[in-house]
Write a structure and sequence with these properties.
It contains six helices and no strands. It is elongated. It has about 110 residues and is mainly α.
Amino acid sequence: EDNMMTRKPTSVGEILQEEFLEPLSLKISDLAQILDVHRNTASNIVNNSSRITLEMAVKLAKVFDTTPEFWLNLQTRIDLWDLEHNKRLQQSLANVKPALHRHDTSTFAM
């Protein structure tokens, strides 16, 4: 077990709310307007009921003067954490064999 990621990473919605919306006194309806999306879309992101898309990451980056990578990395860290704690995937992963161990000549060498 890798102990580095035992605690779930901070969610996109939490960071959006605490680091960006609250300091700027923005509500979800304001966020929807400045992102040019439906209020439900903005709400789903803040409440973590939907993932950040590439398009949304680009929009958030423009709105808050960050990079798309900032938002995508937050999302990826959460997604990876979820997968590391997903029993079904872990069981399947146990059956996954590294390709390079099958024959020592590396076909994939760059």
